[in-house]
Amino acid sequence: MTFNDRIFGVLLIVLAVAYGWAASQFPVPFGGGEAVGPDTFPKLLAVVLAISSLYLIVRPDPDNAWPWSRTGVELIVAVVVLILYAMLLQPLGFIISTTLAVGTLCWRMGAPPVKAYVTGAVAGVIVYFLFSYGLDLALPLGLLSFLEVN
Amino acid sequence: METLGFLMDGFGVALQPHNLMFALMGAFLGTLIGALPGLGPANGVAILIPLAFSLGLAPETALIMLTSVYAGAMYGGRISSILLNIPGDEPAMMTCLDGYPMAQKGKAAEALAISAIASFIGSLVATVGLILLAPLLAKFALTFGPAEYFALFMLAFATLGGITGKNPVKTVVAACLGLMIATVGIDNTGVQRYTFGVLELFEGVDFIIAIVGLFAISELLFFIEERAGGGKENMKVNKLALSWREIRDILPTSLRGGVLGFIAGVLPGAGASLGSFISYTLEKKVVGKKGHFGQGDPRGVAAPEAGNNGASSGALVPMLTLGVPGSGTTAVLLALLISLNITPGPLMFTQNADIVWGVIAALLIGNFLLLLLNIPLVGIFVKLLSIPPMYLLPVVTMVAFVGIYSISNTTFDLYFMVAFGVGGYILRKLEIPLVPVILGLLLGPEMEKNLRHAMEISDGDWMILWDSGLAIGLWVFAGVGLILPYLLGPLLRRRMQKPIEKGTPESD
């Protein structure tokens, strides 16, 4: 099967055209046009990318299988966990969000749940103290800020 | 003799207590990174860069630490090759050939010690080569004009896939993607490009975020897909019994391997994998029927290790003198230089002489430290092999998060990193190499600047790009570098293939 490269090639051509078109819309810099304006280099790139994607469409490599079914779901779970981790880092604080994120990832990768979340908590606490006392960097405490010693 | 003076100054920098401490820490961390499953050298150095920033290290200290990490990771990669027959990274593949049979015969400790000594000699030979060659090359590179630099960048991209690379067109695609990301932001004529009015994009995409995302996050996703969460069984290593005669036997092998590796490292497109391959093959030819290669010959362990470490020091030559890295890990080191506001290239040897020579001296010192660390502490590193990736990778991901967060304390950067991770996963699935993407990100601005300068000189005549003999030479070399993999690639790949079924690690 050689769908991957073909589909990707088509997407890349779309990207190249959009990118090149956007470059042609750049305003002319103050002081008039030069030999190499802001649009020259992007236009070059668009052309090179378009040509190489055409090649991908014409002569694609054999496919690697995509992980559908369960593994695919696991991957999506992992990405969602990472996004939530980023989102909750400040509101929940570093230690709690790390416990949840690292714990969930370990668990989904096959660790027993209790061990997984303990790993997350220990890692979170260690890194927190390393950063705030060792390196003098403030990581957010979030919900645990009542513990803060002034 | 001028060089010797500089080198002495370099030792002055590298031997300062805090620099020495960070070199030791880097060497230790590097060996850890090399030994741990699922953490290649490029990946490991990338994760540590933001931490070096948040520590607020001086440029030379940061560079010394991460160069030691780089050297250490090359040492660490061999441990799993020898004990488990699983190469930690691509260049360590050849070490499996004789290292694993030695371990099976109950001589694991000897194999590890021999590989440490061979690595040491290989690096030493190559570092001496670096000291001799780099200043010459830097002086030569001063004659480069903008057109030559533009051609040189093309050469770097063309040869990055390496002679063993699979599909050159995919390298081109990857380079284009990287260069395109590099154009995001306000360019130096003051025009906003591809910012979509998003404030965070005005300054462009921070390549550190991109690198950490592409390497660390995509690695996590790959491990989840392969369901390789469990650990390896606990390994036992016998007591070391290495005689002086055995060490003497591998000395010539290591010297040859170091020289060959250095040459492979300096040449664009060859890299550490080829370095270890060539030195193993040559050693087999030299020793002939007297050896028992493939069944646990110590020289079969020494040759690829010396070659591999020689190549990794050799790869620093183009990175330091021309600002053009030849491998994934040196690209990451280049990222560090650029973010420290040091312009890599020939001028660095005059403007930042203390840094360059400090790093070179640190490489020499680092090698001694590594040898001292590796022989007695190998037991600890061996234990690390049995840490299951299902605990390790989430923690590494967390360290990546902390590092990126600590650069600017914004959540936006974290989303960006995750996005790059998902993108990196998709690209790897499509067998599009990541290193050219990173190189594009790093070299994009310089490349455009040189193109602009060249055009200003020639008043808009594109012919200037291939006007001088040197530029033509570089273009020809670039063309050959792009086409050669088509002709030689399948042949070399087949010869380097091992009976091990293993996903190819991303970079050397």
Write the layout of secondary structure elements.
The complex is a heterodimer of chains A (150) and B (508).
Chain A: H1 3-24, H2 40-58, H3 69-92, H4 94-108, H5 113-134
Chain B: H1 2-14, H2 17-35, H3 41-54, H4 59-84, H5 93-104, H6 108-141, H7 146-160, H8 168-182, E1 185-186, E2 192-193, H9 207-226, H10 244-266, H11 271-287, H12 298-314, H13 316-322, H14 328-339, H15 348-351, H16 353-384, H17 389-408, H18 411-429, H19 435-458, H20 469-496
Antiparallel strand pairs in B: 1-2
Helix pairs in contact in B: 1-16, 2-4, 2-16, 3-4, 3-9, 3-14, 3-17, 4-5, 4-6, 4-12, 4-14, 4-16, 5-6, 5-12, 6-10, 6-12, 6-13, 6-16, 7-19, 7-20, 8-19, 9-17, 9-18, 10-11, 10-12, 11-12, 14-19, 17-18
What does this entry look like structurally?
The complex is a heterodimer of chains A (150) and B (508). With 150 residues, chain A is an all-alpha fold. Chain A contains five helices and no strands. Chain A has helices at 3-24, 40-58, 69-92, 94-108, 113-134. In chain A, helix 1 runs antiparallel to helix 2 (40-58), helix 3 packs antiparallel against helix 4 and helix 4 packs antiparallel against helix 5 (113-134). The longest helix of chain A has 24 residues, at 69-92. Chain A is flat, with a radius of gyration of 24 Å. In chain A, 33% of the residues are buried. Chain B is mainly α and 508 residues long. Chain B is 73% helix and 1% strand. Chain B contains 20 helices and two strands. In chain B, strands 1-2 form a two-stranded antiparallel sheet. In chain B, helix 3 runs antiparallel to helix 4 (59-84), helix 5 (93-104) packs antiparallel against helix 12 and helix 6 (108-141) packs antiparallel against helix 16 (353-384). The radius of gyration of chain B is 22 Å and the shape is globular. The two termini of chain B are 34 Å apart. Mean pLDDT of chain B is 82; it is low at 498-508. Chains A and B meet through helix 1, helix 2, helix 3, helix 4 and helix 5 of A and helix 8, helix 9, helix 17, helix 18 and helix 19 of B.
